[in-house]
Specification:
Keywords: Membrane, Transmembrane, Transmembrane helix. This protein is of the alpha/beta class and 632 residues long. It contains 7 helices and 34 strands. It folds into 4 domains: 68 residues, no CATH class; 97 residues, no CATH class; 110 residues, no CATH class; 223 residues, no CATH class. It is globular.
């Protein structure tokens, strides 16, 4: 009998048995139905339960796998984030002269979770100089981060080389937005850097950039920061050569066109050929930008427009680079470096503020520490609280009080200067600012010239506006040795400075003010004395205010502050122009005309002597970038 026949016979027998059951009494029928139903229900419940159990097991397993994958991914991202923070931290430490020499640990909070990281020297150190003489110090560090999320841990390591460049080897260096709206023609020779954006719109004039280095970590725009429609003037940028100071190198300039200049060639733009020119123009639609009538997008086009000239045999490079090309921030010392005392994390300082005397006094586990320049100065000039709490002029060489010697010989004394920019018009409408005046000629011969080349001025009474105070350097046409003058507040430099037997010199302050040879302290509210031609051979680091809304901060062309009518007169500056912080004390906003000032003829240039590190001013700060070597 075949299988089908046996299956059919079995089905017939079961059908017949079922008919017999149906023919019995009602009681038997109910019992039979209940039994069948119960068996079916048990089978159904058992099957459903088994299926549900399998489903729950699978769901739990899947959910567990998903959580594990989530935790693993999250821990990886957190470790990567901690490494980025560690990279920035080691840059800041190197920039602020705190080079880690052993394993240094810390924590970073990422989305509510503390992630530990360490940094330690890799042992790598090198000095590199390019063809033009610019010097970089490379210092290697290994960074490690360990992130724990749930049961997942992720360890990540990175080796970076901190590239420290003396900041005065830049012609122009800004940590914030750099704005250049020069009006009268201006030439910038030397490296130009901004850690943020760069705005170039010469206000109808011409800006010539004779350099192989124009870098903006943000973007470059051919318009004013406070007016996108103000895209004007001419900006000519030199094509890249390895040594722009070599007179045998080719000088070929290509314009960075304004909006109207682009339109003259048939190209529409928001503000000219800049970072807003995003898509380029492919005139014939052939997919490239190499034909007449084409214009590549700025990100790509800037790499070919300002690369080395055709036929150049001195290597290859690019003059114009932005953050879109992978530039990273160059970290510089903070404003705390110029402060008299800098507040630190509770218990991590070595000074405290004595409530009785009003002075900072040594104290283990204090909340303050001396600012870098104050701590290291060879000569310190301070306004301290006297016996009655009034300002008292003091001078220290090392730990020795040399006040009487310097005062009696006329090297230092207190004076006042009218500063219209700092006058607030209400609390001190006179605009008079108290300054420590230093006769540089007498200092040269006093025997107290700082042996390490660092002179510092600070005040316990520093405040905003006319309460800023500061340091005023006079009679400084000759300086007996390289010198850097630093003030936590304003610096005023009067008359020709460092012009006889020129040496290396710098002024670093909350604001740097330049006064002509004609200045005689007679300026008052409502008056504007006439300036005369004056030369300043010095690098400067100064604070500034930010352009906000329609309020312009004066730009690079007004970075050093003026206080006279300079119309038709020349302010010659040979040095370096650096803006690394917003002014803390000299908070007066930039304004033109009135009893403020009128602009000079600007004969400003980078001091090529700074290309040799032996010629840099004492205690030149560093701008520090990070070159990742490997991450694993």
């Amino acid at each position: 009998m075949s299988t089908e026949e046996r299956f059919s016979q079995s089905l017939s027998i079961r059908r017949a048995e079922g008919l017999k059951l149906l023919g019995r009494g009602g009681k038997g029928r109910k019992r039979g139905r209940r039994g069948v139903a119960m068996v079916a229900a048990v089978i159904t419940v058992f099957s459903a339960g088994a299926l549900l159990s399998v489903m729950l097991t699978l769901a739990h397993s899947t959910n567990k796998d998903a959580n594990v994958a989530h935790d693993e991914l999250r821990s990886k991202f957190m470790a990567e984030g901690a490494l980025e923070v560690a990279t920035k931290d080691v840059q800041s430490l190197v920039a602020n002269w705190n080079l880690p020499t052993a394993v240094k640990g810390d924590w970073i909070d990422i989305d509510g979770t503390s992630v530990p990281f360490t940094m330690e020297p890799s042992g790598y150190f090198a000095v590199q100089s390019d063809e033009s003489g610019i010097t970089d110090y490379l210092i290697g560090y290994q960074l490690t981060a360990m992130a724990n999320v749930g049961d997942s841990s992720y360890r990540m390591r990175r080796v970076v080389n901190c590239r420290a460049t003396p900041i005065f080897q830049f012609a122009v260096f800004y940590t914030n937005d750099l704005e250049v709206h020069n009006g009268p023609d201006m030439t910038l020779g030397g490296r130009v850097h901004s850690n943020r954006n760069m705005y170039l719109s010469p206000n109808g004039g011409k800006l010539t950039m004779d350099t192989n280095y124009i870098h903006a970590v943000g973007s470059i725009f051919r318009h004013r920061k406070n007016s996108v429609s103000a895209s004007n003037g001419t900006v000519d940028i030199r094509e890249w050569v390895s040594d722009p100071w070599d007179p045998t190198e080719p000088e070929k300039y290509t314009p960075m066109m304004s909006q109207s200049e682009l339109e003259a060639y048939g190209f529409s733009s928001i503000s000219g050929y800049d970072s807003k020119f995003l898509f380029g123009v492919d005139g014939n639609g052939d997919g490239d930008f190499n034909d007449i009538g084409d214009m590549p997008a700025f990100i790509k086009g800037s790499l070919t427009m300002w690369d080395e000239p055709d036929g150049y045999s001195g290597g290859s490079g690019n003059t114009v680079l932005t953050g879109d090309h992978g530039l990273g921030e160059a970290v510089t010392p903070g404003i705390g470096s110029i402060q008299l005392y800098e507040q630190v994390d509770p218990g991590k300082g070595n000074y405290k503020l004595d409530a009785v005397t009003g002075k900072y006094v040594p104290s283990a586990g204090g909340d303050y520490q001396p600012g870098f320049f104050h701590q290291n100065a060879g000569l310190k000039l301070l306004l301290e609280p006297g016996a009655g709490g009034e300002p008292e002029l003091k001078a220290y060489k090392g730990l020795a009080d040399v006040t009487d010697d310097l005062v009696d010989s006329g090297v230092i004394y207190l004076s006042e200067i009218f500063d219209a920019r700092q006058a607030d018009g209400t609390e001190n409408p006179s605009g008079m600012v108290t300054v420590i005046e230093v006769d540089m000629g007498k200092l040269n011969a006093s025997g107290y010239f700082p042996s390490n080349g660092l002179l510092y001025a600070g005040s316990y009474f520093a405040g905003e506006g006319t309460e800023a105070g500061g340091l005023k350097a006079v009679n400084g046409s000759e300086i007996s040795a390289p010198l850097t003058i630093v003030s936590q507040t304003s610096i005023y430099v009067e008359g020709d400075y460092n012009t006889v037997n020129k040496t290396s010199a710098a002024a670093i302050g909350d604001a740097v003010n330049l006064l002509s040879n004609s200045w005689d302290d007679t300026k008052t509210a409502g008056s504007l004395p006439k300036a005369s031609d004056t030369t300043f051979n010095l690098a400067l680091i100064t604070g500034n205010q930010e352009t906000t809304g329609n309020t312009y901060n004066g730009g690079l062309e007004n970075l050093p502050r003026f206080h006279e009518s300079w119309s038709g007169k020349t302010a010659k500056i040979n040095g370096s122009f650096v803006n690394t912080w917003t002014s803390k004390f000299a908070t007066g906003a930039w304004k033109y005309g009135g009893d403020r000032y009128t602009a000079p003829n600007r004969d400003w240039s980078y001091d090529e002597d700074f290309n040799d590190i032996k010629n840099l001013p004492p205690f030149t700060p560093m701008a520090v970038t990070a070159d990742p070597v490997v991450t694993w």
